């Protein structure tokens, strides 16, 4: 009792946000975060894997809305133009993409940020799960975004890092370890099995121009087999990784379940559909709206009605 007739108010639980891997579906993370902020809810801890690390880094760095505005403008031509192809350790080096981010956004050290932030990567040599919570934020995000067969590994502190989705696709455990009492997890892996590079749409459908369709087709042909029947290179790699991540996600979330799980319904999204950001962002917003009651109950907060 702090005073006669009054009861001490229990401290608000520390909220953690676990942003999972899932390639282009990850733009849904943007909508989730924006909707939470509009409810007056700001996570104390943000943990990200792969695309979740990228979006999470923009959020804690204060540039999420800028990222949202930019990705909504992306066309298939833009996505293709950001890829620096190589055959050394992967298909895309990622230097062009992350160089673009460095030009548009600041790159502070994680330990200097207001919110706690951690990304998950995989040590290529030992297979160990690595949590990166110090140093330049964009390097931490890039280390987590090294999907085998697509992005080349990144050397971090003398060790080659692979995609964090290989060991912890939805980093609930990392969020808890960094102080979260209540964790909201965004699981993009529930619908990944069977997803491919990109669903080919005829010119004119969903705003896809002749030129964009041609570029996207050329890129898809780079990864597919000559006869058009057998699975192509990328399909084999992507499907294998997706099956693995789905199974790992189920296992890890069964052992350490979050208080709230958000699963974006983006079943027609393929891995490289980064040009469909608006659809994913809108779905992220809808998810928070549908779960607003549960979020209020766990956090003891009223939703901002304004």
Protein model, in words:
This protein has 11 helices and 8 strands. It has helices at 28-38, 51-60, 64-71, 76-81, 95-104, 137-144, 172-177, 210-223, 233-255, 277-290, 292-299, and strands spanning 15-19, 45-49, 116-123, 129-132, 154-156, 159-163, 182-186, 260-262. The radius of gyration is 20 Å and the shape is globular. It starts with 14 loop residues before the first strand and ends in a 7-residue tail after the last helix. Mean pLDDT is 81; it is low at 195-206.
Pattern of helices and strands: EHEHHHHEEHEEHEHHEHH
Principal-axes geometry comes out as globular
Helix content: 25-40%
Residue stretches low in confidence (pLDDT < 50, at least 5 long) are 195-206
Radius of gyration: 20 Å
Tally of DSSP helical segments: 11
How big a fraction of the residues is strand? 5-15%
* Gap between N and C termini: 34 Å
Summarize the structure.
This protein has 306 residues and is α/β, with parallel strands linked by helices.
Write the layout of secondary structure elements.
Elements: E1 15-19, H1 28-38, E2 45-49, H2 51-60, H3 64-71, H4 76-81, H5 95-104, E3 116-123, E4 129-132, H6 137-144, E5 154-156, E6 159-163, H7 172-177, E7 182-186, H8 210-223, H9 233-255, E8 260-262, H10 277-290, H11 292-299
Parallel strand pairs: 1-2, 1-7, 2-3, 7-8
Antiparallel strand pairs: 3-4, 3-6, 5-6
Helix pairs in contact: 1-10, 2-6
Features:
11 helices; alpha/beta; 12% strand; globular; single chain; eight-stranded mixed sheet; 306 residues
């Amino acid at each position: 009792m702090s005073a006669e007739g009054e009861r001490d108010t229990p401290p608000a639980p520390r909220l953690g946000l676990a942003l999972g891997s899932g390639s282009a579906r990850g733009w849904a993370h943007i909508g989730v975060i924006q909707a939470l902020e509009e409810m007056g809810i700001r996570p104390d801890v943000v943990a990200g894997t792969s695309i979740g690390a990228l979006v999470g880094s923009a959020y804690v760095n204060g540039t999420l809305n800028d990222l949202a505005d930019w990705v909504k403008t992306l066309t298939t031509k833009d996505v293709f133009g950001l890829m620096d192809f190589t055959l050394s350790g992967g298909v895309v080096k990622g230097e062009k993409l992350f160089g673009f981010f460095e030009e548009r956004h600041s790159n502070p050290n994680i330990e200097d940020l207001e919110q706690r932030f951690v990304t998950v990567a995989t040590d290529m040599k030992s297979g160990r799960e690595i949590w990166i919570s110090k140093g330049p934020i964009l390097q931490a995000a890039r280390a987590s975004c090294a999907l085998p067969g697509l992005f080349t590994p990144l050397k971090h502190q003398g060790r080659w890092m692979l995609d964090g989705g290989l060991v912890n696709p939805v980093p609930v455990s990392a969020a808890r370890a960094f102080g979260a009492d209540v964790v909201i997890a965004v699981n993009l892996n529930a619908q990944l099995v069977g997803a491919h590079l990109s669903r080919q749409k005829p010119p004119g459908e969903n705003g896809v121009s002749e030129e964009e369709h041609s570029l996207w087709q050329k890129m898809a042909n780079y990864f597919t087999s000559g006869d058009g029947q057998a699975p192509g290179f990328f399909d084999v790699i992507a499907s294998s990784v997706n099956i693995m991540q789905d199974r790992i996600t189920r296992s890890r979330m069964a052992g350490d379940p979050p208080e709230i799980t958000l699963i974006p319904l983006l079943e027609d999204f393929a891995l490289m559909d980064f040009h469909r950001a608006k659809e994913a962002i809108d779905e992220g917003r809808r998810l928070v709206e549908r779960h607003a009651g549960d979020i209020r109950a766990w956090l003891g907060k009223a939703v901002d009605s304004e």
